[in-house]
């Protein structure tokens, strides 16, 4: 980007590589600095060095699920906006468990059209910038 305006950073976390890679391309084409990883553990490692403004996380990940990842990100990097997405029926139970512990998240149901995801990202980042 030109001048002092910096690119908005977006992290995509999904174990389905084609989804992650496609979303990284889409967000990059729309002017975001986008990176993708395929597990919660990779996300935590990347975030030690690179701090996204938004993390878009699949709920059903191997090992650590996306909700547990989102809770850890919120605790360590509270300025990072979060959105979860899932196509799995088991997501509701995980979300209810998180809600009972005081955690609420924006969630999108797969399949998600790219324009809907870009709109959500723009809305969350705009809301965050008005709070700061």
Topology, please?
Blueprint: E1 9-13, H1 17-29, E2 33-37, H2 40-49, E3 54-58, H3 66-76, E4 81-86, H4 91-100, E5 106-109, H5 114-131
Parallel strand pairs: 1-2, 1-3, 3-4, 4-5
Structure description:
The protein has 132 residues and is an alpha/beta fold. It is 47% helix and 19% strand. The chain contains five helices and five strands. The protein has helices at 17-29, 40-49, 66-76, 91-100, 114-131, and strands at 9-13, 33-37, 54-58, 81-86, 106-109. The chain has a five-stranded parallel β-sheet, with helices on both faces. α3 (66-76) links the parallel β3 (54-58) and β4 (81-86). The mean pLDDT is 87.
Question: Number of DSSP strands?
Answer: 5
What characterizes the major β-sheet?
Answer: 5 strands, parallel
Distance between the termini: 22 Å
Rg for CA atoms? 14 Å
Mean pLDDT: 87
Quick overview of this protein structure:
With 132 residues, the protein is α/β, with parallel strands linked by helices.
Based on the model shown, name its key terms.
alpha/beta; five-stranded parallel sheet; single chain; 5 helices; 132 residues
């Amino acid at each position: 980007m030109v001048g002092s305006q910096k690119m908005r950073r977006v992290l995509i976390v999904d174990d389905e590589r084609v989804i992650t890679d496609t979303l990284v391309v889409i967000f990059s084409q729309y002017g975001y600095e986008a990176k993708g990883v395929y597990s919660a553990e990779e996300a935590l490692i990347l975030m030690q060095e690179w701090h996204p403004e938004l993390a878009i996380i699949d709920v059903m990940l191997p090992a650590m699920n996306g909700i547990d990842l989102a809770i850890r990100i919120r605790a360590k990097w509270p300025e990072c906006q979060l959105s979860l997405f899932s196509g799995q029926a088991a997501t509701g139970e995980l979300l209810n468990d998180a809600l009972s512990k005081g955690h609420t998240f924006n969630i999108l149901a797969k399949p998600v059209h790219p324009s809907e995801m870009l709109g959500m990202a723009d809305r969350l980042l705009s809301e965050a910038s008005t709070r700061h």
